[in-house]
Amino acid sequence: MFAVARTAAALAVGNAVIVKPPETSSLSATVLADIVREVLPQGLFNIVTGDGKGAGNAIARHPDIKRIAFIGSPETGRLLQRSAAEAAVKHISLELGGKNPMIVFPDCDPDVRPGMHLWQREVFGPVMAIGRWSNFCEAVSLTNSTEFGLTAAIGTHDLDDALGMARRVRSGHIWINGSSAHFPGVPFGSMGSSGVGREEGRDELLTYTEAKSINVMLRPRT
Protein backbone atom coordinates (compact mmCIF):
# COMPACT_ATOMS: atom_id res chain seq x y z
CA MET A 1 0.00 0.00 0.00
CA PHE A 2 2.72 2.48 0.97
CA ALA A 3 4.74 1.74 -2.16
CA VAL A 4 1.72 2.49 -4.35
CA ALA A 5 0.78 5.61 -2.40
CA ARG A 6 4.28 7.07 -2.56
CA THR A 7 4.89 6.41 -6.25
CA ALA A 8 1.52 7.23 -7.85
CA ALA A 9 1.90 11.01 -7.74
CA ALA A 10 5.50 10.92 -8.96
CA LEU A 11 4.61 8.69 -11.91
CA ALA A 12 1.51 10.72 -12.74
CA VAL A 13 3.56 13.86 -13.43
CA GLY A 14 6.19 12.07 -15.50
CA ASN A 15 8.95 10.92 -13.13
CA ALA A 16 10.78 7.64 -12.87
CA VAL A 17 10.79 6.21 -9.34
CA ILE A 18 12.97 4.02 -7.13
CA VAL A 19 11.32 2.11 -4.28
CA LYS A 20 13.44 0.81 -1.40
CA PRO A 21 11.21 -1.39 0.76
CA PRO A 22 12.14 -2.38 4.33
CA GLU A 23 14.77 -5.11 4.30
CA THR A 24 12.50 -7.29 6.45
CA SER A 25 9.48 -7.09 4.12
CA SER A 26 10.62 -6.70 0.52
CA LEU A 27 8.54 -9.43 -1.13
CA SER A 28 5.35 -7.43 -1.68
CA ALA A 29 7.30 -4.62 -3.35
CA THR A 30 8.98 -7.01 -5.77
CA VAL A 31 5.59 -8.50 -6.65
CA LEU A 32 4.31 -4.97 -7.26
CA ALA A 33 7.26 -4.36 -9.59
CA ASP A 34 6.32 -7.47 -11.61
CA ILE A 35 2.77 -6.14 -12.00
CA VAL A 36 3.86 -2.62 -12.92
CA ARG A 37 6.36 -3.93 -15.47
CA GLU A 38 3.45 -5.16 -17.58
CA VAL A 39 1.97 -1.68 -18.04
CA LEU A 40 4.80 0.87 -17.74
CA PRO A 41 7.87 1.36 -19.95
CA GLN A 42 11.07 -0.23 -18.70
CA GLY A 43 12.99 1.88 -16.20
CA LEU A 44 10.10 3.96 -14.86
CA PHE A 45 9.42 1.81 -11.78
CA ASN A 46 12.47 0.36 -10.03
CA ILE A 47 13.02 -1.67 -6.86
CA VAL A 48 16.24 -1.54 -4.82
CA THR A 49 16.44 -3.91 -1.86
CA GLY A 50 18.87 -3.73 1.03
CA ASP A 51 19.27 -2.20 4.46
CA GLY A 52 19.13 1.46 5.36
CA LYS A 53 22.86 1.93 5.92
CA GLY A 54 23.67 0.55 2.49
CA ALA A 55 20.89 0.98 -0.06
CA GLY A 56 18.96 3.67 1.82
CA ASN A 57 21.99 5.85 2.42
CA ALA A 58 23.10 5.49 -1.21
CA ILE A 59 19.70 6.66 -2.43
CA ALA A 60 19.64 9.60 -0.02
CA ARG A 61 23.10 10.75 -1.11
CA HIS A 62 22.78 10.18 -4.86
CA PRO A 63 23.13 13.55 -6.61
CA ASP A 64 20.65 12.69 -9.37
CA ILE A 65 17.81 11.84 -6.97
CA LYS A 66 16.16 15.18 -6.22
CA ARG A 67 12.98 14.09 -4.43
CA ILE A 68 12.64 11.62 -1.53
CA ALA A 69 9.48 10.39 0.23
CA PHE A 70 10.03 8.32 3.37
CA ILE A 71 7.86 6.46 5.89
CA GLY A 72 9.49 5.29 9.10
CA SER A 73 10.67 6.34 12.54
CA PRO A 74 11.55 9.92 13.56
CA GLU A 75 15.13 8.83 14.25
CA THR A 76 15.60 7.38 10.76
CA GLY A 77 13.84 10.37 9.22
CA ARG A 78 16.32 12.75 10.83
CA LEU A 79 19.25 10.62 9.64
CA LEU A 80 17.80 10.66 6.13
CA GLN A 81 17.49 14.45 6.15
CA ARG A 82 21.07 14.78 7.34
CA SER A 83 22.48 12.38 4.74
CA ALA A 84 20.55 14.00 1.91
CA ALA A 85 21.57 17.52 2.95
CA GLU A 86 25.25 16.56 2.99
CA ALA A 87 25.02 15.42 -0.64
CA ALA A 88 22.75 17.95 -2.34
CA VAL A 89 19.69 20.17 -1.96
CA LYS A 90 16.73 17.79 -2.08
CA HIS A 91 12.98 18.00 -1.55
CA ILE A 92 12.02 15.52 1.19
CA SER A 93 8.66 14.51 2.63
CA LEU A 94 8.52 12.41 5.78
CA GLU A 95 5.77 10.43 7.49
CA LEU A 96 7.25 9.47 10.84
CA GLY A 97 4.40 8.05 12.88
CA GLY A 98 2.28 9.73 15.48
CA LYS A 99 0.48 9.63 18.79
CA ASN A 100 -2.97 10.41 17.49
CA PRO A 101 -5.36 11.82 20.11
CA MET A 102 -9.12 11.33 20.21
CA ILE A 103 -10.67 14.19 22.18
CA VAL A 104 -14.10 13.24 23.52
CA PHE A 105 -16.27 16.01 24.99
CA PRO A 106 -18.64 15.28 27.92
CA ASP A 107 -21.72 15.52 25.70
CA CYS A 108 -20.60 12.28 24.05
CA ASP A 109 -20.82 10.40 27.40
CA PRO A 110 -17.23 9.15 27.36
CA ASP A 111 -16.14 6.14 29.37
CA VAL A 112 -12.70 7.27 30.54
CA ARG A 113 -10.25 6.03 33.12
CA PRO A 114 -7.13 7.72 34.49
CA GLY A 115 -3.74 6.64 33.24
CA MET A 116 -0.94 8.68 31.69
CA HIS A 117 1.43 5.81 30.81
CA LEU A 118 2.30 5.37 27.14
CA TRP A 119 1.11 8.93 26.55
CA GLN A 120 4.15 10.14 24.63
CA ARG A 121 5.19 7.32 22.31
CA GLU A 122 3.58 5.52 19.39
CA VAL A 123 2.62 1.92 20.15
CA PHE A 124 2.13 -0.64 17.38
CA GLY A 125 -0.49 -2.72 19.13
CA PRO A 126 -4.01 -2.69 20.62
CA VAL A 127 -3.10 -0.20 23.37
CA MET A 128 -4.84 3.07 24.24
CA ALA A 129 -3.64 5.66 26.75
CA ILE A 130 -6.67 7.34 28.36
CA GLY A 131 -6.65 10.51 30.46
CA ARG A 132 -9.25 12.87 31.90
CA TRP A 133 -9.46 16.59 31.23
CA SER A 134 -11.54 19.12 33.14
CA ASN A 135 -11.65 22.15 30.83
CA PHE A 136 -11.03 23.20 27.25
CA CYS A 137 -7.52 24.59 27.83
CA GLU A 138 -6.41 21.45 29.66
CA ALA A 139 -7.66 19.29 26.80
CA VAL A 140 -5.61 21.35 24.33
CA SER A 141 -2.53 21.18 26.56
CA LEU A 142 -2.73 17.40 27.00
CA THR A 143 -3.31 16.87 23.29
CA ASN A 144 -0.33 19.00 22.29
CA SER A 145 1.99 17.59 24.96
CA THR A 146 3.60 15.01 22.65
CA GLU A 147 6.19 15.69 19.96
CA PHE A 148 3.94 14.12 17.31
CA GLY A 149 1.23 15.73 15.21
CA LEU A 150 -0.07 13.32 12.58
CA THR A 151 -3.84 13.04 13.11
CA ALA A 152 -6.46 13.75 15.75
CA ALA A 153 -10.16 13.02 16.22
CA ILE A 154 -12.70 15.15 18.09
CA GLY A 155 -16.05 13.86 19.34
CA THR A 156 -18.79 16.31 20.32
CA HIS A 157 -22.26 17.46 19.27
CA ASP A 158 -21.20 21.12 19.65
CA LEU A 159 -19.71 22.30 16.36
CA ASP A 160 -18.29 25.47 17.92
CA ASP A 161 -16.36 23.40 20.46
CA ALA A 162 -15.19 21.03 17.74
CA LEU A 163 -13.90 23.78 15.43
CA GLY A 164 -12.34 25.68 18.33
CA MET A 165 -10.45 22.56 19.39
CA ALA A 166 -9.46 21.72 15.82
CA ARG A 167 -7.88 25.15 15.35
CA ARG A 168 -5.74 24.70 18.47
CA VAL A 169 -4.65 21.08 18.12
CA ARG A 170 -1.25 20.64 16.45
CA SER A 171 -2.12 17.87 14.00
CA GLY A 172 -1.95 17.83 10.24
CA HIS A 173 -5.26 16.01 9.72
CA ILE A 174 -8.26 16.21 12.06
CA TRP A 175 -11.58 14.37 12.00
CA ILE A 176 -14.69 15.62 13.80
CA ASN A 177 -17.13 12.90 14.89
CA GLY A 178 -15.27 10.29 12.89
CA SER A 179 -11.80 8.94 12.22
CA SER A 180 -9.51 7.35 9.64
CA ALA A 181 -11.46 8.37 6.52
CA HIS A 182 -9.46 9.81 3.63
CA PHE A 183 -11.05 11.97 0.95
CA PRO A 184 -9.84 12.34 -2.67
CA GLY A 185 -7.99 15.58 -3.23
CA VAL A 186 -7.77 16.51 0.47
CA PRO A 187 -4.13 16.92 1.60
CA PHE A 188 -2.96 14.49 4.26
CA GLY A 189 0.14 15.28 6.30
CA SER A 190 1.59 15.97 9.69
CA MET A 191 3.25 18.40 12.07
CA GLY A 192 6.10 18.19 14.58
CA SER A 193 8.09 14.96 14.73
CA SER A 194 5.43 13.16 12.70
CA GLY A 195 7.05 14.52 9.56
CA VAL A 196 6.86 17.15 6.84
CA GLY A 197 5.00 17.44 3.54
CA ARG A 198 1.49 16.72 2.30
CA GLU A 199 0.13 13.76 0.35
CA GLU A 200 -3.01 12.69 -1.51
CA GLY A 201 -3.87 15.64 -3.69
CA ARG A 202 -2.68 18.53 -5.80
CA ASP A 203 -0.22 19.57 -3.09
CA GLU A 204 1.62 16.26 -3.41
CA LEU A 205 1.59 16.28 -7.22
CA LEU A 206 3.26 19.69 -7.31
CA THR A 207 6.12 18.51 -5.08
CA TYR A 208 7.19 16.12 -7.85
CA THR A 209 7.47 18.97 -10.35
CA GLU A 210 9.63 22.07 -10.63
CA ALA A 211 8.35 25.44 -11.80
CA LYS A 212 10.40 27.25 -14.42
CA SER A 213 9.92 30.86 -15.50
CA ILE A 214 10.85 31.79 -19.09
CA ASN A 215 10.86 35.48 -20.01
CA VAL A 216 11.04 36.44 -23.69
CA MET A 217 11.97 39.96 -24.75
CA LEU A 218 10.19 40.61 -28.05
CA ARG A 219 11.38 43.21 -30.50
CA PRO A 220 8.96 46.11 -30.84
CA ARG A 221 7.08 46.25 -34.11
CA THR A 222 8.38 48.76 -36.62
Describe the structure in your own words.
The structure is a single chain. The radius of gyration is 21 Å and the shape is globular. The protein folds into two domains: 108 residues, Aldehyde Dehydrogenase, Chain A, domain 1 (3-Layer(aba) Sandwich), CATH 3.40.605.10; 75 residues, Aldehyde Dehydrogenase, Chain A, domain 2 (3-Layer(aba) Sandwich), CATH 3.40.309.10. It is built from seven helices and twelve strands. 22% of the residues are buried. The chain is α/β, with parallel strands linked by helices. It has a three-stranded mixed beta sheet, with helices on one face. Strands 5-7-8 form a three-stranded parallel beta sheet, with helices on one face. A two-stranded parallel sheet has the order 1-2. Strand 7, helix 6 and strand 8 form a beta-alpha-beta unit.
